[in-house]
Amino acid sequence: MEAEAILRELVALDTNSLESKNYAKCANLIKSIADKSGLKTKILRPPGTEKPKPNVIVDFDAGAKETLLVLTHYDVVPAGSGWRTDPFKLTEKNGKLFGRGTSDDKGAIAATLSALSKLNNSKVNIRLICSCDEETGGRDGAAFLTKTDAVRWKGKKIKYAFVPDAGLNSVGIGCSGIIRGKIIVKGKGGHAAYPFKAVNPIYKALPLLNELKKYSRIVEKKRSISNASPGNPHKKIWGRFSVTVVRAGEKTNIIPGELEIGFDLRLLPEEKLSDAKREFREFFERAKRKTKVDASLSMVGTSGYLISSDSKIVSKLKKSVSAIFGFSPTLSSNLGGNDGRYLAGVGIDAASFGPTASDANIHALNEFIRKSDLEKMEKLVIHLARSW
After folding, report:
1. Domain ends where: 248, 282, 302?
2. What is d(CA 92, CA 96) in angstroms, rounded to the nearest whole number?
3. What is the pLDDT of residue 319?
4. Residue 125, H or E segment
5. Which helix (H) or strand (E) holds 291?
6. pLDDT band at 231 (very low <50, low <70, confident <90, very high)
7. Based on the domain organization, do 23 and 152 belong to the same domain?
8. Pair 28, 170 in one domain
9. Which residues 6+ apart lie within 8 Å of 80 measured at CB?
10. Helix, strand or coil for residue 322?
11. Which of 60, 268, 329, 366 has the fewest Cβ atoms within 10 angstroms?
C-alpha cells in the first residue's frame, strides 16, 4: 500500500490516549498491513493494564550486521470540536492532508510501512515499533518495551534508533525532560451565603500563583549546552515553567474546600530529574512560608536526553535528510519530549527528524501533513536504509 492509503486507514481510527480508544483495532490494522507486505510482525502488551495496550513490532530482516530501530506511536490527543473537516477522515486540500494524527505521528507510521514494503538492497535491518501511550508519557509503550527483547535483534542489543516524531527543520539529538505536577490549596468549604464561616481557597491561592509566576522567570534563565531548533526565541534550549490548570468549585453558591493548580515544567536535555524536582520543591516550600498558604505538592517526571553529535545515526540521518529534503540540517534538541528518551535510557542513540511542519497544527484543530512531506519521509527511510 502507498503511504497515503495507509494514513487514510490509520486516521479513520480515533486512538485518543485519554480513553486508550481503538488501540487494539489500530494495532491489528498495522499488523495486517505489514503482514500483507511479507514483513515479520508481533504484538507486545504490558501486563496488568485495565485496557488493551498493544505495541506493534514490524521487522525487515536484511541479513545485515546492524539494526536500526524506528520508533513511532499511534496514539493521538483528542480531536476536540471546531474542525473545518472531519478529523477522522483524511481530507486533501491544497496539497495538505488533514486529520488527527497526520503529523503526530501516524504519518510517520504510514511512510515507514510503505517504505518497508518497497525496500531492497538495504544495508541495515529495520525494526519498526508502533507504540501506544506516547501522548500520556509512554509508560505502557516505549518505557515498557525497553524492558523487553524489543530493543534486541536476535539477542544483540540495538545501538541506533530513528524517531520520526519531530519537526522538519533540524535533526534532533535530544529532548527536554518534563515534570508534571499538582498543587492542592486547602480551604474550608461552605455556603456562599455565609462566607464568614468558610475559608475560600481561591483567594488563598492568588499570592501563591504570583509566586509561581516568578518561578517561570527563574527557570527561563537556564541554558542548555544543546541548540534549540531554528526559529525559537533562544539559540540554546532553555527552561520553561507554566501553570496550566486552575480548578475549583462546582456551583456558584458553594465555596469550595480546595483548589487545584496544575503545572508543566520543562527541563534542559542534560538536566537531572532529581535535581529539578528538588529545586522546585525547595521553591514551593519557600513560597508556602511566604504566602502562609496551606498547600501540598505532588509531581511526576521523566528525564530528557542528549546524545553525541558524532553518533553514527546522526551522521547518517543528516546525509539522508540532505539528499531527500534538499538542505543541510542543523542539530538541535526538541523543546518537547519524545519517546527517544526511553531508548537513550538503555544506551541506544536516538536521533529524530519528522514530518511535522511548523504550521501543521499538532495537538490543535485542523492538524495536517503536507502530501509532499509524507512522500519524502517514505523516501528518507529508504535512503537511510540503503546508505547505512
Report:
1. 302
2. 5
3. 98
4. strand 125-131
5. helix 273-291
6. confident
7. yes
8. yes
9. 365
10. helix
11. 366
